[in-house]
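Reviewers asked in the last cycle whether our approach scales beyond single polypeptides. To address this, we selected a multi-component target totalling 1424 residues and predicted its structure end to end. The input consisted of the following lines:
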Amino acid sequence: MSSEFGKNLRVSVFGESHGNGIGVVVNGFPAGESVDMDRLLYFMSRRAPGSSKLTTQRKEADLPEFLSGIRDGVLTGSPFAAVIRNTNQRSGDYKGFEDTPRPSHADYTAAVKWNGAADMRGGGHFSGRLTAPLCAAGGIAIQILARRGIRIAAHLANIGGIADEPFPVFPDVDLFDELNAMMFPLIDAQKAPLMQQLIQQAADEGDSVGGEIECAAIGLPAGLGDPMFEGVESLLSAALFGIPGVKGVSFGSGFDCVSMRGSEHNDPFVVVNGKVQTETNNSGGIQGGITNGMPLIVHAAMKPTASIAQPQRTVSLSRMEETKISVHGRHDPCIAIRAVPVVEAVMALVLLDLLS
Amino acid sequence: MSSEFGKNLRVSVFGESHGNGIGVVVNGFPAGESVDMDRLLYFMSRRAPGSSKLTTQRKEADLPEFLSGIRDGVLTGSPFAAVIRNTNQRSGDYKGFEDTPRPSHADYTAAVKWNGAADMRGGGHFSGRLTAPLCAAGGIAIQILARRGIRIAAHLANIGGIADEPFPVFPDVDLFDELNAMMFPLIDAQKAPLMQQLIQQAADEGDSVGGEIECAAIGLPAGLGDPMFEGVESLLSAALFGIPGVKGVSFGSGFDCVSMRGSEHNDPFVVVNGKVQTETNNSGGIQGGITNGMPLIVHAAMKPTASIAQPQRTVSLSRMEETKISVHGRHDPCIAIRAVPVVEAVMALVLLDLLS
Amino acid sequence: MSSEFGKNLRVSVFGESHGNGIGVVVNGFPAGESVDMDRLLYFMSRRAPGSSKLTTQRKEADLPEFLSGIRDGVLTGSPFAAVIRNTNQRSGDYKGFEDTPRPSHADYTAAVKWNGAADMRGGGHFSGRLTAPLCAAGGIAIQILARRGIRIAAHLANIGGIADEPFPVFPDVDLFDELNAMMFPLIDAQKAPLMQQLIQQAADEGDSVGGEIECAAIGLPAGLGDPMFEGVESLLSAALFGIPGVKGVSFGSGFDCVSMRGSEHNDPFVVVNGKVQTETNNSGGIQGGITNGMPLIVHAAMKPTASIAQPQRTVSLSRMEETKISVHGRHDPCIAIRAVPVVEAVMALVLLDLLS
Amino acid sequence: MSSEFGKNLRVSVFGESHGNGIGVVVNGFPAGESVDMDRLLYFMSRRAPGSSKLTTQRKEADLPEFLSGIRDGVLTGSPFAAVIRNTNQRSGDYKGFEDTPRPSHADYTAAVKWNGAADMRGGGHFSGRLTAPLCAAGGIAIQILARRGIRIAAHLANIGGIADEPFPVFPDVDLFDELNAMMFPLIDAQKAPLMQQLIQQAADEGDSVGGEIECAAIGLPAGLGDPMFEGVESLLSAALFGIPGVKGVSFGSGFDCVSMRGSEHNDPFVVVNGKVQTETNNSGGIQGGITNGMPLIVHAAMKPTASIAQPQRTVSLSRMEETKISVHGRHDPCIAIRAVPVVEAVMALVLLDLLS
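The resulting structure, written as structure tokens, was:
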């Protein structure tokens, strides 16, 4: 099995939620690029639990220690390795899930796959916590891309049915700066109270809500990606479905294309300032798997957090009989919020791979 | 670049629409499995143009010639290679697209990527025609899986906004047999006239419509797939986005999860006949990237055919000025129909890889 | 299983000796490069049987048909596919080897691996014939590299114990031109009669002899390849051991280094015309897996042809008892001769991959 | 770039000699296997410096810390990660090598490849020290294989021209036990004094000597490996050339096959106790890339240590003029000795991958 992705930039994530540590190894980071640690830690803090009242209150220091591939803040060309210690495990919270698997968690499938040997405390290798090292790697990729004129931003396109504005056809850099600075990133900030109320209400009821993230990259050259199975969609979707909780990935018009006519969906080519562009961007910046120079637009649907306090029906695997379970502890009522920087990180790593 | 996918079962598709031939090489087909040619040709005929009034009337013999890996109808273990000759090219139909790229086609991105060297006649390597060899390989994988108790079927879940019934939580084999036998596969056959009328109307107007395909696999063991980036969703989505026209891929509840509560979305575990199952299947048969033994459910959104007769705005790349284009010829007004067996083929190849 | 190699340039070889055809698919050939067909066919003819009295007299037309990836002699960027028809099969020659496997052939291992389903007529997928499509792909890579100032040549460094001169530390292009033009390539042409006599004598006795090929590339930039497992040695050796009959691969000093002192083996750095070079080249142009700008030197040991007319001891698998076998037919008494262009082809494909 | 190898068992090595730490991540270790820590540490100690008077006297604790993939001594199925801290760096020893590269080291190629950003203190990522985490992973693989009846052993086949006895055609387990227990493993222990005298003499003269390692695996089933480029030779050689200092890899008869006749080289099939075997083993246990059930025999040529105290000619890259260098510090006068367990480790990891 392989918790890895990438071709010329290989990203390998390891760790279990309640083991000694989690981390990431990246083969292929370009040598000589410097890493701004403050910016990296800020980026990682957007993913960290406790970043707002609406995210889990578990405390994770989550400070990455760099083991190799970087010296005096500059990437050396050798494999990059970063480790985050696990210091705040409360395994007691998770006791018993090995026999009574939490609904819609990986407790059951891991038990079957690894014959009971899996260390599933805290979700084990399937924990959302594994996205922290992913953000350490992705945060570096974001800095490298920015130096090449490529910017990435994402927002909460939808929370529990309440939609934010979509990205405009030609988003500008200011919007990206703003979104990158928000813990609850929205294009239409007025939607925040409504969304947060919905989340708070679910939390109060021991429940959770789903969300959709829209992520964009601007400044990309045309011609990235390959036809068919190594197209940009293929590479990005494979990496994005690696984020726990993602149930759907789409590009440009996404599933809305189903109800559209070709005359409406096709993006007319136009010439603007001597450059070929498209007037609309239903293609999401990709045609035939290859970037066309327009903003790259991807959507990820995040399911409602599976860990909820409400009692749920499950089974005891040892007794093979039905029972009930309540998952206590400090869980995000909406995992989509903290997943925003994770989606950005994955996007950055895939794009840097394509540029390598 | 790499028109390939798979790990222990490697599928490599080659060819250009108007070159000498298209084909597929598969490394890793299990030795000793027999191939029922009649069933294979029937399966491929479901993808073939002209299979119904609503699909393109271009004629393609599309009979695959087997070059290696099969002897007297039995797979030998060596790389499998099949070639389909291109005999019916009408390159005249496509003249000029190299200078005036068709909106939402790969004409422009291929021109940029390959500096004008691409052979884009008939869509070149990006043509939907490349799905024919994919079906030759996938049709064989379907036969192998069936011998192992694994069945695959798909239907037109939505055409232009008109929805079919979804798969029930526990679809039975009879439903799979029925769907496999239909050229316009629907669970609720009464939806056919409405959908077909919609398509015909679009065709009459020189336009096209989008569609959504829902594909299911039953009989899968629990425990297939790996966590994170080699989960079933990652592998399947990467392969499905290789099908021309796919804009979105989702599993189980898909993008609907965005509006759901955790208490509603979580699939309760139950014991039925001494076996662990889930009562609902919002997980789409996958938890943590790993199959849980429930039906595997995937959705693919297919955009409306980009080739339409209606005049569209494009640019002349040589003159860098705007112009108009009409794409004549015999194009499917709804590519989703013929894509149904293609999605089944890809599903089968990915699953056989996971079982290898 | 996977008869493939490469990363950004993927080479996939298929076919069985007595099936319908053999061929190669290459993903990643650079678009826009032209192919000189005469030079390609000449290159392939060096590998063809019957090229000299000392090679097998079986006749193979071995003309490749290009199916895709090339148009009017120019590579298009799409996957390149070439097929060679099998027209001269004399399966009768090979009858019985499925029950009484030829010593040191793959008859036995293929039978075990594929449970008797393998098509081993003529050696099946393990036949030296599979190197013909490899040469079709490699011959194109050689032309592309030459345009970038990189030249490749090989010679018969040793036949049955008779050694040719090794490459000088700084071989010039003229030597490469000469070697490329020879069917029995030697640096010291005076060794030809001795070697050929040895081969002829073995042939007369129904026997065969081994050989060693030394292959060099000049004009390479420093900095190609990666440390550890994706170093130049790793990539080249993995591909070279894919050639049937190769028993050893070494670089620079190779196995001679075992008897050397460090003071003797280390290559002193010197400055020549303002450029860093090494005075000797025991490193074979590679240090730490990475090219240093010196000639890249690789050696391949080719075992004596396993198919010999002399009676040999084998077993009947069905009766599980010992018996004897004589392998008649037209076999090269020294496979190293025809393997020279194959080694060059593999070298070129690996180098082009590293440059992609 | 990618310091990784393997397919279903992926091994990724990271670290720089004088960075914070070195380590290994393994994806695909089978869940539920226990790890005997004492045996693992003993295995690692065979590679550790200072294990004998003839190896470097630098002290490395080299105790691996396990970060994930193992719980209470049992592999969990998740990615396995182990880290070894760097505590004993003496960077002063290496000062200046960035400007005056050590002959036959990677100082120069790394400087060119990574434009001076490489951290080459102590050899950086190219240091033999990186083989410590490789042994941590390989030592676990060895334990898993032993439970499946597969044993691995290696010996010093040749030191500076003095040859040990080769493995017999059918080595028994006792020999493997003996070799596994020796720090200076020889089949003919009487050769030890001669070899050690040779090494000591070279060390006294500030020089070093080369060596050859022969490694064998017994208990393998027939049928492992695939034809052509994923044959056992291809996989093993690619991994072995990742070990610093390896200049050649061969199987069975190796380069000796060059001087042999086919009648002499072919391994006759015989039936022994109802099982098919070969009487000789020039094939090294592999035919057509696939194991035949005989002992797997591989040879690796290790060059003499490049770091020697004798003054050597090199250049100053900044001044582009020739100068001299002496590499002081505690270097092994014969790296082959400590490389013995490394070769065993690599062999075990590749075989476990093939069995996965």
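Helices of chain A lie at 37-47, 107-113, 131-147, 173-180, 192-204, 232-240, 262-265, 335-355. We regard this as preliminary and will revisit it once experimental data from Aim 1 are available.
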